[in-house]
Amino acid sequence: MIATTFSKESDSGELRLRPVRHRRRFRRRACCENRGGKWSARGGGRRSLSWRYLRQCRLRAEELYSYAAHFHDAFEDSAGFGWTLPQAPSFDWATLRDNKVAEIARLNGIYGRLLDNAGVTLINGRAKVLDAHSVEIDGERISAEKILVAVGGWPWVPPFEGSELAISSNQVFDLERFPERFLVLGGGYIAVEFASIFNGLGSETHLIYRGDLFLRGFDQQVREFTRDEMGKKGVNLHFEVNIERIRQLDSGLEVTLTNGEQLEVDAVLAATGRRPHLEGLGLDTLGVTLNDDGTLKVNERFETSIPSILAIGDVTGGPELTPVALAEAMHLVAHHFRRSSGWQHPGGARLRRHCHRSLLPPQYRYRGALRRSSARALCGDPGLQRRLPTNEAHSLRQRRALSDEADRR
Amino acid sequence: MKHTLSGSDERCLMKLIVDDESDRVVGAHMVGEEAGEIIQGLAIAVRARLTKSDFDATVGIHPTAAEEFVTMRSVTRR
Questions:
Q1: N or C: which end of chain B has fewer CB within 10 A?
Q2: In angstroms, what separates the C-alpha of B68 from chain A's closest C-alpha?
Q3: Is the pLDDT confidence value at A201 over 50?
Q4: Looking at the complex, does the CB of residue A363 fall below 8 Å from at least one CB of chain B?
């Protein structure tokens, strides 16, 4: 037998940088950050980077806060193993927040250097697409053979009285003071993660969801199990109810629910989804075709209705997950900038079968190989099975990508 | 196992979904400690279209929670 070994030693959390390496294939490249100062202030970096990397930073931050929440139970559990703590452990929000800011700044530095080394010109400013081949950034016109839109999504908060008092997951990590009383609006996995994290950090936590059970689209048993376990951990779950209004009081925020119940909390996090971040990009005036949900419509080569304008990631809809966006980036580069390969994208732009992860209750993480489509539907719908990416070329491609990477090391 | 000494009432859920006809494992779920670390390997198995008998024939890594995925003998729902 002839065997090839692949191995890797790394900081286990080190982020994938492959798409950046691929950018070397562009003859001239520029990358524009459309959110400017807003992000740099938040991320703590010296300068702002593209949305894609900051999004990864947000995920990194979430992971760090999840780790922080884990300690709560570790301290408690240790007693049964013979450990005694000299005094009850206490948690300092500012330490976690500031250490996180430093870590994100470090990552920003790494990404900045990667872009520099790859020969990418970073332009900070708001971009507006003028036509199929040009973009305007703060009055300067730049033209390109291809324009890639990878702006992602932006938090959406449902309209209700005082909704401006709610924060989104963009702000939650940087709160000035630790919210002793924390309320999350929403029933998706982001909402469940944040409720679990803040409960673990010691907040009195409430989760408000309009449906009868959170994590819609997940396996029913997983949903019920998670509900029960979170309840045991002390998260106050309020289902089939919504927020009527929020009022600012001196002592906090007064939240009135649609069933008349009132809660007083220190922070309200609206984890009610993200919408494609297309505002001001000018794509609407160009007449780029959108999907029904307002995301950019792309074909299997990630081309919008204007073929020189490409789009990947959350802005194109589908599973809003970093690994999916990363895979799309690699596929895009392979298709548009590596013409020799003759590779075809398996199953269009959507990578349907993926490993889905969530930082559920601190100790309770969930990964399912199935998402949205229940297992029953998958088994019972041969059409769906056929649509799954099982293309042989795909696996070959992946193997080649791995060996390419090994060669570069 | 940890919770036998910690006294915690935390529980863990692991679940495999198997297609009756082909015996293929079409989905895997886990809610519990280190689920994130465990499920990636299972995702490869699912993608490789492995069957429940492949899972059953795999020797568990003992003592771990992950070995439950290769020692599931009782059907809970059809």
A1: C
A2: 15
A3: yes
A4: yes
